[in-house]
Amino acid sequence: MPSTGSAQESAPTSRRSKITPERAQELYTAVLDLLRESGYDSLTMEGVAARTRCGKSTLYRQWGNKPELVVAALHGTRRPLFSGIDTGSLSGDLLEAARAVESASGQDTALMHALSHAALQNPDLLCAMRSTLITPAIAAVDAMVERAVDRGEVDADNPALEYVAAQVMGIMRARPLLEERYTDGRFVTRFVECAVLPALGLPSLPPTPPGSGT
How far is CA 83 from the centre of its chain? Predict the structure, then answer.
């Protein structure tokens, strides 16, 4: 005879199909918007329910608690920041990545700041944050570097290669803290041009593709 605990654990699972994938995406989007607006500590299941006009009991039945809902929202809205960037040169790739950071500064950067402190207190949240926001971005920058080495664009023993992803990700985190001093909207691009590319021995502008000059 199954225990009462087993029956209680399996009951929510049997009811999860009541939320459609489309509705789940609406809820996930609302969760991330609220995180960006007010931070993790201020996020509540009640607030999500009010924003989405969803019953609070439905949220608890589906996800159990706030950390589980946030983890689900991160995984359910995963979109790599630097996916698809391949300009044919490392300087072009990194400048395009910088523009992507600037375009996403009100989204991904704000989200990372909202979650960073809470993630250190919650291993599941930290794992979700790494797998959805951090690791894919680092992998994309590492791929840019590897392509450049394969093309012979930079020396494989250049000591700066190891730190390119850390520089790009670090400036994403630091930018909001530096805005009082660096108000230029091209701050990340200029950082790449003036700090990252020179360390790699690359020009600040990508080479002009053959046949495109005047």
Answer: 11
Q: Is 80 exceeded by the pLDDT of residue 201? A: yes
Structure tokens at 150: 């394969």
Which domains does the chain possess?
A: 4-76 (1.10.357.10), 90-199 (no CATH)
**Side-chain half-sphere CA neighbours of 106 within 13 A:** 4
Q: What is the pTM of this model?
A: 0.74
User: Tens of pLDDT along 64-97?
Assistant: 999 999 999 988 888 778 989 999 999 999 999 9
> Cα–Cα distance between 83 and 139 in angstroms, integer?
10
Q: What is the DSSP letter of 161?
A: G
Structural Rg of the chain based on CA atoms = 21
Instruction: Output the pLDDT for position 13.
Output: 41
Structure tokens at 194: 């003036």
Neighbour count for residue 100 (Cβ, 10 Å) = 21
Structure tokens at 64: 């159990």
Least confident segment among 11-20, 78-87, 190-199: 11-20
**Concatenated DSSP letters of 57-113:** HHHHHHH-SHHHHHHHHHHHT---TTTT---SSHHHHHHHHHHHHHHTIIIIIHHHH
Residue 131: which residues within 8 A CB-CB, separation 6 or more?
A: 75
Number of C-beta neighbours around residue 126 at 10 A: 17
